[in-house]
Design brief:
By secondary structure, this protein is α/β, with parallel strands linked by helices. It is built from six helices and six strands, in the order βαββαβαβααβα. Strands 2-3-1-4-5-6 form a six-stranded mixed beta sheet, sandwiched between helices. Strand 4, helix 3 and strand 5 form a beta-alpha-beta unit. It is globular and about 50 Å long. About 3% of the residues have low confidence. The structure holds guanosine-5'-triphosphate and magnesium ion. The site of magnesium ion has 6 residues, from helix 1.
Length: 256
């Protein structure tokens, strides 16, 4: 059997999220086993990584242990993208361009999501929610198009759990759902105010609305309807006792 090692045929995972979340740190950790010092990214970066031998890829789970291919390292590509607001087209292009995209990791700095009383400390949460909203809306539009697209698992990786100010994963989920509820309201209001969508059919307007219609709360579970299953898991790329990324590896193994 011909096996090509060409990067085009390898499954890939896309890492997105706000600037400073730790995306490039995570990429170097997954590639080399220890995180390198990083600078803010201005271009995307693709590397090859291998699943640790202790983690079994879902696609290998039902193979007999006598099957030599079950002992093979599972190789995949990781694509890091810049988080800066003006450079996010790199992330969006990687979602729309045809490739073997197996999943998306949305990395957030869980210590930068303070849900204070609406002061400037909420900027981190707002930025993360707006970025995540736009990615989910893009995946929703993609699923509602005429072409059939594969399901897309999305991991919200709540990074920097080593910091005592970090929100634990369930609170990160709640904070992002509540903030995305506000984002989609202000986005649809913005469209109405600017006159875009006026005179259009209800259908066209509906498409700009993330998740279920109506005034209710946004929940990640609403994305299941468009083939996007959202998982939230905490971890840390750095930290006193070393990296804590087992749950993220497990998710990659599940999705590979
Ligand atoms: P952009 O390239 O600007 O989009 O940012 P990025 O998401 O690639 O962030 P980067 O990996 O450069 O990390 C930003 C800073 O966070 C660096 O100083 C890292 O050392 C730090 N950092 C990353 N992960 C962790 C973590 O788990 N805990 C702590 N305490 N710091 C972390
Ligand atoms: Mg970076």
């Amino acid at each position: 059997l011909f096996r090509s090692s060409s990067s085009r045929t390898l499954p890939s995972f896309l890492i997105v999220g706000p600037s400073g979340a730790g995306k490039t740190s995570l990429l170097t950790l997954f590639e080399r086993g220890s995180p390198a010092t990083t600078h803010t990214s201005q271009t995307p970066l693709t590397v090859e990584a291998a699943l640790p031998v202790t983690t079994t890829a879902a696609s290998n789970r039902y193979r007999s242990s006598h099957d030599p291919s079950s002992k093979e390292h599972k190789i995949f590509l990781l694509v890091d993208t810049p988080g800066h607001g003006k450079l996010r087209h790199h992330a969006f292009e990687n979602i729309t361009s045809p490739q073997h995209l197996k999943g998306i990791v949305f990395l957030v700095d869980a210590a930068n999501l303070s849900t204070g009383a609406g002061g400037p400390t909420d900027a981190g949460l707002r930025e993360a929610a707006e970025y995540l909203h736009d990615i989910l809306l893009m995946l929703q539009k993609r699923a509602m198009g005429t072409k059939k697209v594969p399901e897309m698992p999305l991991l919200i990786a709540a990074n920097k759990q080593d910091l005592f100010t970090a929100l634990p994963a369930p609170l990160v989920k709640a904070a992002l759902e509540a903030e995305i509820t506000k984002v989609r309201e202000s986005r649809s209001k913005g469209l109405l105010d600017s006159g875009i969508g006026m005179g259009d059919s209800d259908m066209a307007e509906e498409k700009e609305w993330l998740g279920e219609g109506g005034e209710g709360k946004f929940e990640f579970a609403q994305m299941e309807d468009v083939g996007v299953s959202v998982t939230i898991a905490g971890g840390s790329v750095l930290g006193g006792e070393g990296p804590e990324v087992g749950k993220w590896w497990d998710w990659i193994a599940e999705s590979l």
